[in-house]
Amino acid sequence: MDLFDLNPTTDHQPLAERMRPQTLDEYFGQSHILAPGKVLRKIIETDKITSMILQGPPSSGKTSLAYIISQSTKANFVRLNAVSLTVAELREAISTAKDNLKMYGQKTIVMIDEIHAMKSNVQMALLPHVEDGTIILIGLTTESIAHDLIPPLVSRCRTFTLKALDHNDLKEIIVRALKSNRGLENKFEITDEALEYLADVCNGDVRSAFNALEMAAYSLYEGNLIELQHIREAYDSRVNSITTTDFYDIVSAFCKSLRGSQTDSALYWLARMLDSGVDPLYIARRLVVHASEDVGMANPNALQIAIAAQQAVEFVGMPEGRLALAHATVYITESPKSNSVYKGLASAFQTVRNHRAYPVPENIRDGSRSYINPIDNPNSKMQYLPPEIQNEKFYFPQNSGTESKIYARYYDKENRK
């Protein structure tokens, strides 16, 4: 039994379930896909549902929208969860759908929650039945469709992206829950300060806001006024989760802040990753990469600092290890930047791949008798590159930080020629 079988007005249910919208008119937000005249609203109202994927952050209304569809459609509605779904269970659902279609002319809508967790072989088993119309698929996911679903399945579904509710929407929903007969029935009031804080700290997660509101309301010893400290206490154990899509976006923001020498931004995204439970060693690896890729020869010490941060995280663990990560983050962000090493290696790779494998010049081969040590003989002339590419240049120093000394030496040499 799940929420699709329950009467949402039952008193024992959490506030978030009691306040779940029953119709499109009660549904709040997502006007970009559900406003009057929009395609999704039309196909729901006319019961012309086609296969779709509802993608969006937690508590943005995906399950509520699926519930509304289940209540308004004449099709048989089957709810499955991808986390535990097997090929055998899917085949059973498809077999029943075929029988209903053949015997009664009744369509079947299969809603698969957490569809991103569905194994690829199960997705492949689902594919032909979505394609031939045996079932109408509604997939729900908080994660990245590009990373977690096979392209053939995505191409056969219309993707609707739901957005996190904004601050004002959240405030209105919270006030509605306080006043609604399905909610707290006007038994409690909330201060403006507490309302503002709750709408902000829930991070767009309506369910989280409702849970905190209900906990704060029922923890009052006297009176009926919910104040700021009550909401803060209700949120003491909040977990700031992160989806796959958010993960890649936040990592990208962190990396671009490092490259752009934006220290405050880099520290903010670092804190977001750590607070969301991202593996600190993953963050350390990104710092090591940027120490060479973006700082490079402009400050060679950056690589040592990044490696030291990685070792510190392994040695002292968390939470103290986060200070070493912050140390390296600030050092890399504040360092002068040069990507000459990155470009030089990329250019060398391009030459290697665009030419045949030239033999090593005889004078620098292992055991060569014609090799002359340039340290002892600084004026010696040796052949270091194959003759065919002896004029190729890969490394171009940049006039930045420590590398400016190399830059001056290189271009002073060029000017003397």
Question: Which secondary structure elements does this structure contain, and how are they paired or packed?
Answer:
Blueprint: H1 15-18, H2 31-34, H3 39-45, E1 52-55, H4 62-72, E2 76-81, H5 87-104, E3 108-113, H6 120-131, E4 136-141, H7 145-148, H8 151-155, E5 158-161, H9 167-179, E6 189-190, H10 192-201, H11 206-218, E7 225-226, H12 228-234, H13 244-259, H14 263-275, H15 280-295, H16 301-316, H17 321-334, H18 340-354, H19 403-416
Helix content: 40-55%
Count of alpha and pi helical runs: 19
Kindly report the spatial arrangement of strands forming the biggest sheet: 2-3-4-1-5
Write out the CATH superfamily name of the largest domain.
P-loop containing nucleotide triphosphate hydrolases
Radius of gyration, taken over Cα atoms and rounded to an integer in Å: 30 Å
- Structural class by helix and strand composition: alpha/beta
Low-pLDDT residue spans: none
The ordered H/E elements are: HHHEHEHEHEHHEHEHHEHHHHHHHH
CATH-level-2 architecture of the largest domain: 3-Layer(aba) Sandwich
**Residue-averaged pLDDT, rounded?**
86
Under CATH at level 1, the class of the largest domain stands as Alpha Beta
How would you sum up the major sheet? 5 strands, parallel
What is the name of the CATH topology of the largest domain? Rossmann fold
State which percent range the strand residues make up.
5-15%
How would you describe the shape? flat
Q: Tell me how many strands there are.
A: 7
Alpha-carbon distance between the two ends:
84 Å
Number of domains: 4
